[in-house]
Amino acid sequence: MESPDMTFTLAYIVFTFCFVFTPNEFRSAGLTVQNLFSSWLGSEDIGFIQYHVKRSSLTLLVHSSIPLGYYAGMCIAAPEKNLPYINQVSAGWQAFLGLSLCLQLLSLGLIFYWSRRHWSNHPISRALQVHTGPQWAGWGAVATSINTEFRRIDKFASGAPGARVIVTDTWVMKVTTYYVHVAQQTDAHLTVTESRQHQMSPDSGTPTQTLTLRVASINQAVNPFDIRLMSTEYSELREKLHAPIRSAANVVIHQTISDRFLDTFRAQADLNQPYLLPSEMEVELCIGCMQVPAGAKLIRLCCEEGYDSGSECRQCFCRPMWCLSCLGRWFSSRQDQDRPETWLASSVPCPTCRSKFCILDVCLVR
Question: Of 66, 67, 73, 40, whose CA–CA distance to 54 is shortest?
């Protein structure tokens, strides 16, 4: 039969490992620093940078108290060791207690230093200071820009809270346990450096592919960092970035059938006859995503010479209301998902007036 102190030690090691690296079960139960101290941390949506400055500091304080928590727990789990009475314990336990206290005091001193001058000494604040210039006078102005863009619904966000990737109109960010990497989009170059194939995903139960991208900046003061995401999120990330993503020669990216169809849909729309927008007509935002201007118009072109005269397609009289991406996603969602070879030759109803159209009828607005 195992002794109580051994049982407590094993249980504490498992708990510590799960608390620091936070599996989904602990996150669902709310056993994270963010959930336990949510009232003090505030809202991430209101002040993204301020939230993570406080979160990273509090995380360091909590993690540094783990050895001291073990000593306190052993005082209860093994009362025969007389651990509450420091002068009666062995030299090994005295040394462990001394190191635990020193670690706790060191973290407190470091956090106090970070908090000086309104947290300007914090590593996250220093990471923002390298982006100051004519556009942003100080790190506070950079933080305001990031906070504002983070509140927008069109940002790209992926990953668990401890390793999250966030891309806004101006910034590429990676949130880690103690830090937030920040790079400006106009200065950043992204390269796919590695891909890993997993036979089974714990969430979907299907094979998945994980991509590793290297984010490097022409600003020498910004250290390169790696971000990881699923290959199914790659196209969404690519749409949010202003610059193209480079790939290493040996990296193969496996996109979903819908993503590959969307690329073909766009390529065919580029080949189709464009729609010249009348001067008196104004283009509004796409009613599907409400993020980009409506850039597609349906005109029956498949009835022209050389195409099938028996087509089910009808003339659509709707004004441009959808962007090309949303229209392509609508087209693919109306298809037989088990027969992707029929998608290009099929027709679907217009999402607004229900007039049937095919891929040859999709025109870009000029």
Answer: 40
pLDDT of residue 99: 95
pLDDT in tens, 47-62: 999 999 999 999 999 9
Half-sphere exposure of 34 (CA within 13 A, CB side): 18
Residues ≥6 apart with Cβ < 8 Å to 219: 130, 131, 183, 184, 187
What integer pLDDT is reported at residue 1 of this predicted model?
A: 44
Looking at residue 308, what is its pLDDT?
52
Query: Please, are residues 292 and 285 in contact by the beta-carbon 8 Å criterion?
Result: yes
Is 299 within 8 Å of 361 (Cβ atoms)? yes
What's the pLDDT at 305? Answer: 45
For residue 78, give the DSSP letter. -
Q: Residue 229: CB partners within 8 Å, gap ≥ 6?
A: 158, 159, 165, 210, 211, 213, 237
SS3 state at 213? strand
Helices 257-271 and 324-333: angle between axes, nearest 10 degrees: 130
Which segments of the chain have a pLDDT < 70? 1-2, 198-207, 254-255, 304-310
Strand order in the sheet with 246-247: 225-230, 208-217, 188-198, 246-247
**Mind spelling out the 3-state secondary structure of 3-55?**
CHHHHHHHHHHHHHHHHHHCCHHHHHCCCCHHHHCHHHHCCCCCCHHHHHHHH
How would you label 102-121 residue by residue, b for 16+ Cβ within 10 Å and e otherwise?
Answer: ebbeebeebbeebeeeebee
The pTM of this model reads 0.72
AA identity, residue 360: L
Kindly tell me the sign of the dihedral angle through the C-alpha atoms of 276, 278, 282, 287: negative
Q: Each residue of 66-101: b (16+ CB within 10 Å) or e?
A: bbbebbebbeebbeeeebeeeeebeeebeebbeebe
Task: List, in sequence order, the alpha helices (H) in 151-271.
Answer: 234-240, 257-271
